[in-house]
Amino acid sequence: MMRFQREAVPRPDPLPAPSSAQRARLLRAIRWVALFALAVAALAVAIVTNGEREWHVHMMIATGLGVFLTILLAGALMLLAFFSNASGHDSDVAQSTRENDEK
């Protein structure tokens, strides 16, 4: 007679899935950050072109994109940190890590 070995059943993920309200709140906040980044990029392009009689299109595009993407990335990462903390994911991970360390 063949014996079957019992395979370990994987545990479910201890982190809850974000609700649609939390996701909508995050997207709304990212839109505000994108609008702010767009305003700062327009201001940076205006400042760069203010004193110059002759300006190059490539320099304006590079300045605008560089400032916009930098502000957008910084804001999005900060928002993700705040929303992760507010949703309880950080405390769940810390508790799971503490339990694994005790074993």
Chart the SSEs and their pairings.
Blueprint: H1 20-50, H2 57-87, H3 89-102
How many helices? The count is: 3
Helix percent reads over 70%
Integer average pLDDT? 81
| Helix and strand sequence | HHH
Gap between N and C termini: 37 Å
The best one-word shape is elongated
Rg is 24 Å
- The total strand number stands at 0
Structure description:
This protein has 103 residues and is mainly α. Helices cover 74% and strands 0% of the residues. It contains 3 helices and no strands. The protein has helices at residues 20-50, 57-87, 89-102. The longest helix is centred in the middle third of the chain and has 31 residues, at 20-50. The chain is elongated, with a radius of gyration of 24 Å. The mean pLDDT is 81.
From the structure above, extract its key features.
single chain, 103 residues, mainly alpha, 3 helices, 74% helix, 0% strand
Could you write a compact summary of the structure shown?
It is built from 3 helices and no strands. By secondary structure, it is an all-alpha fold.
